[in-house]
Task: structure prediction
Amino acid sequence: MNFNPCLKHKTVRKTVSKFVETELGPIAHEIDQNARFPVEVVEKMRALNFFGLQVPRKYGGAEMDSISYAIVIEEISRVCAAMGLCITVHNSVGTNPIAQFGTKEQKEKFLPPLASGEIIGAFCLTEANAGSDAGGVETTAVEDGDDYVINGTKIFVTNGGICGSALIFAITDSENQRSTSSVLIAEKNTPGFFVGEIEDLCGMRANPVSSLFFEDCRVPKSNLLGRKGDGLKIGLSTLDSGRIGIAAQALGIAQAAFDDALKYSKERQQFKKPLSNFQTIQNYLADMATEIDAARLLLYRACVFKDSGKAFGAEAAMAKLYCSTLASRVTGLAVQIHGGYGYSKEYDVERYFRDAKVTEIYEGTSEVQRMVIARSLLSKPT
Amino acid sequence: MKKKAQTAKVKDIWVFGDYRNYFQTRVTLQLLSRAGDLAAKTGASVCAVIFGHNLDEYVSEYIAHGAHKVYVIEHNSLKKYSMEIYISLMERLAREYEPDIILVGATTFGREFAPRIAKRLGTGLTADCVGLDIDDQGILVQTAPAFGGNLLAEIITPEKRPQMATVRPGMFQEIPHDYERKGEVIKLPLPKDLPKERLRIVQYQRKPHRGQRIEEADVVVCGGRGMGGKNRFKKLFELARLLGGEVGATRPVVYSDWADPELLVGQAGKHINPDVLFSFGVSGAIQHTAAIRDAGLIIAVNKNPNATMMKKADVAIVADTNQLCMALIKELKKRIRS
Amino acid sequence: MLKLIVCIKQVPMVSELNWDPRTGTLKRDLAEGMMNPACHHALEAALRLKDLHGGHITAITMGPPMAEEVLREAMAIGADRCILLTDKRLAGADTFMTSFILARAIEKECSNFDIILCGCHTSDSETAQVGPQLAEELKIPGAAYVEWLELKENILRMKRLSDNFLETMEMDLPGLVTVTTSHYQPRYVPLSGIQDAYDKCDIITLDADDLKLNIIGTKDSPTRILKVYSPCSEKKNIEMKGPAKKIAEELLDKFGRKIGGAIKKDLKAYEQEK
Result:
């Protein structure tokens, strides 16, 4: 077991790091303050394969391994978590399901524009009455001739304000609600597809999270992903992969907070000594560093399992659970170490603190992650 | 040149006459002065070497500033610096007269000229020295910076001769001129068998002096992200104007479009060496501090006493950057008027 | 076909460094490496020549085995072939020796070149000497600190600012240029390029025996490092606090003479008049 990153992973990390520090670094504060999605940076990211990280080469993607993927998301999130969110949601839940479950025609039609970033993708599951309870979804997709007609409202859709296509999780058989849901690909310019107002959120503010309304929105039957009734299967599989991305995102936020706290503790002096001389602060730093390392190893294990074709759902859930809990804890400590300055927007730590919290909530709350892990533990033969 | 260092006696110390920016760049005179100190320790002669056209004025300046001898090759065709020809000439002279040490100013020209000479003569060269000394074995101890000045190295060329170094302008003081000093002028003819030039200068003009460049300014006022905004940053121009200085900016400022990219002071921008540097709202990232390491008095102003820049400054002022900028402008106006 | 060679150096990424006080050389393997910024610009200049005229780029570097990383990076943005010169015996070579070794490798692997591009200097040793010395070693014309270049009918036209002089030059090929960081902003590396560079491409690795060289870097270099040390920067670091008006007055009182130097005024004078 080699714990050292290979040269390729080092290069990926340095390359992405250089790009985001140059392009996103100077504006990260401003776009969070103004809740502005930085279109100008997105344009530059497109040419560098940020939008097709794991899409096969023949469709214009970079076909990266999962650890490389995690590194990309971590590095983007270290500088600007809102953009890390955009990229990981687009890749893991907005694009990869098509690569995994799509027909040849669907892949040829949808993957190239998604991989090139010409179209940004989104995944619509959550509704007003269906958060953790995915089975409580009420959006319907009714067969009518060669189309499905979609009616319903999806809320808290990441990338909602700028997506060009979205994967809709809808009920396709209304007689037996709990068991027949399906996933449909809907394109933005389809009549009946409406984008709601951008949410005003605590963190991830540069990401245009919004509701999407579907009023008699007709999509061709050829846009059904997988088979009718595969909704739950596709949804759960997608979320397993998505968890790796969110774990990486949370890890990036934690790393940023830790780096800032470490630097600050060496510079700030009180009682004529740098903060880092005090044992309490040293304990904080030691704990933070240890947990971040542990989180990274958990994440990469999930990545390796996924790439080798093993079942990785529980491992991905552990990674997501641990990384997101860690992000909240580390960012909170980082603010504490910065003292009063940490509470001011002059420093970046308060943004990390605000950004971290949601990683414990979306793509499966920490409570749901525990359910997944427990189920896996209890289903194993003793 | 494979002569071993025989005794402690150093025969000749040569200084290359880089004269084309004579009034701004006094490095040849500075090197003549230092060569004089080293020569005094070892009984050597200080010789200037100059190639070009219409050189009498420079020759007498060199003698007045410490040269015992000046080797001159003067010709119409040498009106502008020609790298390949100058290298040929220097090589021939060095092989014939076998100096023990050759010093070249670390101008842009010198930093390309000297390594090529060193290669031809098969000897060692230390770049951009900030210190030169000579030990009793006649070995030139050359102190040169590395890693943006974060490290200094002492380097010697123990066996090969001549020992060569390029020296940073401004490291040594020229001696006051003495036009009564006598020196030997050795005029040599331009050889007829020079190689055909494979590198030719097609156009050559002195850069129009659009006011002073920031790299030459004695006072620089740098502003960083802590200034808070474009209009606030603009106030620094007034402060700089009052002090006869220039304005510099850090990377976040240029990226936020508060200042032109030409004002960037940093590893990817300009390196400055003012006598006085004001640093307003600058955090002190490595890429910036590497470019200001040669500044004299550094006055940093920041709301945050813990910014890295505050630790690197001689005077660290904890204050609101805008308030202090305006207070300084006001106070300066009062004093200058009086 | 246009044949370009780019000499690249991997330099340490941080300014906090570890060096071996015995040999005065850097413990390079302890710091993360990156492509020297000026070399990156040289590579970009080569890529633009290739974009315009077509051709082939060979990237070459001399260093420890981890220097492979900068070659992979070069390939990821468009270099066609990469050569790594690595041998423990060559470590500690000065610029004279380095240019000698590079020249032998070029003669062996890509002697039929048109232009060699190098960075004007490195961010670690900052000598700016390898480029010019390499040109001498190969007996080709060279121009350093070039800011802009253009190829027309086998003549390279270049522009640079040299000591306050704007020079436009022409060079017969084959020749060498060193490129500054003022132009040729390096393009970003696409992620698919990184994948290809690692998975699909081979690097030619050469050691001293392959080049038939019997050299010890530290011993055979004409220059020798006696010692390396940190300059003591003793900044007295006076802190000033309080209302802005009062600080401004105090500052000009204390340092008025120094600050006023440029405008030839003694800014302390006001105090005396008061």
Observations:
- Residues 270-274 of chain C have pLDDT under 50 and may be disordered.
